[in-house]
Specification:
By secondary structure, this protein is α/β, with parallel strands linked by helices. It has 14 helices and 19 strands. Helix 1 packs parallel to helix 10 and helix 1 packs parallel to helix 14.
Amino acid sequence: MDADVVIVGAGLSGLRCAVRLEELGHQVVVVEAEQTVGGRLRTDLIDGFRTDHGFAVILPAYPALAACVDLDALDLRSFGAGVLVRRYNGLKVLADPAREPQWLLRSLRSGYLDPVQLAAAARWYAPVLTGVRRVLQSPDVTLGKSFDDAGFTGALRREVVDVFFAGVLGDSYGATSANYVRVLAKMFATSTPGLPAAGMVALAQQLADRITGAIRLGERVERLEDGAAATPEIAVHTTGGTLRARRVVVAGSPQSIPDLTGLPAPDTRGLITWWFEADEAPHPLPLLAVDGRRSDPTPPGPVWNAAVVSNAVPSYAPSGRHLVQATTVLDRPDGQAPEPDVRRHLAEIYGCPTRDWRVISRYEIPHALPFSPPPLTPRRPVDLGAGRFVCGDHRDTSSIQGALVSGQRTAAAVHASLR
């Protein structure tokens, strides 16, 4: 027997599962097909720039982070609690006055603080104030219908909130579970998003550094095979040989789920993230930028959000240089827009020329995050029987929080089965 448990995949859920199983006294081996840990949270260092695979952020309000991650060690650098919105009459600042009082006057001048629509937004948000658990167990509808039901139909919703969540969720049609988005909105409302100084991979690396067992990188799992009836073990056949374990946890990519578990692949949404070097920062504030110019249900496109990341996290760029990200959404025809279209739209959003910006990297992530339609199922089974388990944010909620909770929940189930 090579280990008590073999974990397939070194993303957040697999790493959290491994850490917890070792804390419970089990011998663990992690097998990862890529050459680095992190799964979808990976960071490349290119010409002194840090470019994450996708534009993900850390919300410190996630409860699982405080329980299993040393946030201070991550050296989080925060964005501002607000957004920049391109309108026909200029680029406006819209920020939380409680957390960003220095931008209050600019927010008042944005044209979005209509008392009627603010009251409607408060009605939509109010259910989450009764508690996350209660919201997740409540009747559910799509995000778009929930906004309509609350009377949240004005410019603030159509030009800002719809566009913001489309880029976050990879869902430009508002078809995601309203209950899930309410919980996510609470995380944004109670903490400011940030990035580790060393890139998003630092979150996964911190978990990996706690694992005392082997982490075998660059080794793909090809199939699982039950042992003989008299031998309670599972053979894990990999490109590097065969491992034998009492239990196996499949924590790999969504597309690997069917072959290794027999479960259907989770429905996912995709994104493309572009990273540009700019000679000058197109805007001085550390805020996400969206395009609010909407004369019909379709925004100008193809960019759904952009940010001068080096404004918030200077370590993402060499001294004196600037790093800009732009995200397109793959559920739209223009998600695969060519570079000239992305440059054109960035120039419109920021109101500055972009022809001299240099493309540092472009990441197409077709399975960026699981899709969460209504009714939301926040807890899916992880025990598949016969010593096999599955974990990932597709078994909980589609988020860093969901991945960490899934890893911990699966570790508890594996531990119970071994006992």
